[in-house]
Amino acid sequence: MVDRAGTLVRDAFEQPTSNVETKSSNTDLVTETDKAVEELLIRGLSKEFPDHKFIGEESVSGGQKVELTDAPTWIIDPIDGTTNFVHRIPLIGICVGLAIKKQLRAGIVYNPITRELFSAQKGKGAFKNGFPIHVSKTEACSNAVVVTQIGSIRTPEMMNSFVQSFNSVIGDKQAHAHRAFGSAAINMVYVAQGSIDAYVEYGLHCWDIAAAAMILKEAGKPFNLMGRTVLCAGTPSLAKELSSALTHVEMETEGDA
Ligand code: LIP
Fold it and tell me: Which of 41, 111, 183 to mutate to test the pocket of ligand 1 (most atoms within 8 A of CB)?
């Protein structure tokens, strides 16, 4: 099913951009392809699992409540990195996560452009195109490639956090490099495969992170799915050092969590 969704996204990626709409703000984009992919995934999964529930980015934009209950729930972001998709930057992820009793059980992040399929199931490890992946062993910020990302929320608090944290991590601590790939899921699976050492972003939603969080969790990282913040790193000492260098933003949890 994710395969079919991938074909849909790849076909659209090869055509000129059309039908871009904005949602909560001018920096929050959606396309016909986002909606079509979400519909395809929900239709297909409901057929196989009629009792299961769904949290989908575009369904929530259409007015559905974010409700994570004990029921098996598929958490879907049809295209994580919609702005990349709109600008034809090939860093996007079709994200499908499964939570049962509010615990993540499985996750898939598929980049249909690069044909990289990241997957994990609880207790079975994390994989890319079938091969095991692992987080990096980097301990110190001065040896790390760090992703700090700002999303669609550009409040003064958010901007201040981003700029202060950038100065502190990249300037004061002299991290090896700064990157930002424009998709929470891609940032996270890159931590999972050890290409980058750490990633921080505030203001995310559960659909941005659920599938990739499962992949990271398989590397032993605890995760608050509804917390709207990601701070992940290959090692606990890097996470600790980074956390003390960041200007944090307090986020309210999502839904009733
Ligand atoms: C996007 C994220 C991106 C983040 C944006 C947004 P979308 O998701 O993956 O990294 O910075 O705030 O949430 O809207 O492309 O699915």
Answer: 183
pLDDT digits over 34-45, tens only? 999 999 999 999
Within this chain, do residues 92 and 178 fall inside the same structural domain, yes or no? no
For helices 32-48 and 2-13, angle between their N-to-C axes, nearest 10 degrees: 170
**253: in domain:** no
Q: Could you tell me if 60 and 93 lie in one domain?
A: yes
Domain of 104?
2-132
Q: Could you read off the pLDDT of 99-158 as tens digits, one per residue?
A: 999 999 999 999 999 999 999 999 999 999 999 999 999 999 999 999 999 999 999 999
pTM above threshold 0.90: yes
Which of 34, 77, 218, 241 is flagged as catalytic? Answer: 77
Residue 28 annotated among the catalytic residues of the structure:
no
Q: Is 80 annotated as ligand-binding?
A: yes
Element (H, E) at 9: helix 2-13
Reported ipTM: the value is 0.93
Whether residues 206 and 115 share a domain: the answer is no
- Whether residue 14 sits in one domain with residue 128: yes
- Which amino acid, residue 195? S
| Domain final residue, candidates 99, 132, 165 | 132
Sheet strands side by side (includes 198-202): 177-179, 145-148, 198-202, 229-233
pLDDT value, residue 18 = 75
